[in-house]
Every structure is written in structure tokens, then in C-alpha cells.
Predict the 3D structure of the following.
Amino acid sequence: MGLDGGTIATRSDVLRRQSSRVAQNDTSRSSRGGNAAGKVSDPGAVEASVARQTAWSNCALSSQPLQPPLVADGLGRLYNKEAVLQFILCARDKVSEPEALLQYANQLRVAAGGLDHITSLRDVFDVTLTAAERDRATQAGGASSSSGGGGRARGAGSEAVYTSTVPINGTSEQVVVLRAALKAAAAAKAAKRELAATGAAGEEAGRGGSKKRRKGESGEAA
């Protein structure tokens, strides 16, 4: 060992080679002998922790730091209300600023259909989040629940479509359930509109027929 121009293997080097996972996840920058200050961590756990902290500190739409007033959607995501307003205005072609339109296009591209449920302020509800609640939820890795007042979420001065408690930044399983509920509600709403339109068309046709009959009767009497 040594005196031959080679490198002396240390105990840390030997142990590091025993586990490929440890070697891949070792944040030490030392090439020999390891680093006493180095930390071995699980990339999956680190990624989940970062995602959790981001969800509780940044707007899910603009990625900017969360600033009151805050709102949440039916999936439990947190947004800056101003960002949601701009998103809705862009969707309705009410904005002409190139920068805002570019941001809107990027948001749609990144979301890949994940924002289709936000079409008006009725689709979100107001949320009050304290720093203590945010820190507690981030550290615990769980979700906080919000339902506005009296069990029904309210947003922008009118009732939102949510009639039950919505977990804020919930688990992936909870998000799947919430997304399915949103799709079911949207389908029911579309069916109701279609039924109303069909009924209105039927009434109009009925009134038209009555007018024709009255006109015909008037002609015969003449």
C-alpha cells in the first residue's frame, strides 16, 4: 500500500462501494476518503419535500410567491387571486398585452389540460392561510382542509360549485377523486344546459305552431 503512486483506499471508500445506491445519492464532493460533512439522501424524498414546500409557498398558476388574497380550486391547489383573474381574462380574449398572452400560452402548455376546470371566479374559493398553518402543513407533509363558510366554499361573492370540504394540497389519491368529482359536475352542468336549450326550442316551436294555426283560422273566417 502506498509508495507506488497509487491512492490509498480508505474505509469510507470501501463502504461506499458496497452499495450502489449510497454511491449514487452521496452528496459529498470528495474523491477520496469521503467528507464528514457530506449527507446521503433519497432523491425521491428530497423531490417530494421540495414539491410540497413549493405547493405551499408558490402560486400553482404563476409560480410566484403566494400573496393575499389567495384562492384555491376544486383540486385543492393554491393560487394568487390576481393570477387567476388574469388567466380568466386571457381565456376570454380580454387581454392584449403580449407578455400576458405569452404567459397564458405557457401556462396552458405546462398544464396540459389541467386548468380546463377554471373558467370563472366561480371555480375558485377564497382561502386564508397563515404562516403557522403553512409551515405546519409543509413539515407534516399532509393536506389542510378548507370549505369556506358553513361547509360550502364561496368565491368572488357568489357560491362556488364545491359543496364539501376540499383538501388543500392533498395526496395524489385525493386529487384523483377531486378531479373525477369536477368532471362529473361539469358533465351534469352541460346536460342541464342542453336540456334547458332543448326545452326552450320546443316552447318556441310550439308558439310558432300556434301562431300559424291562428293565422289559418283567421283566413278561413274571412
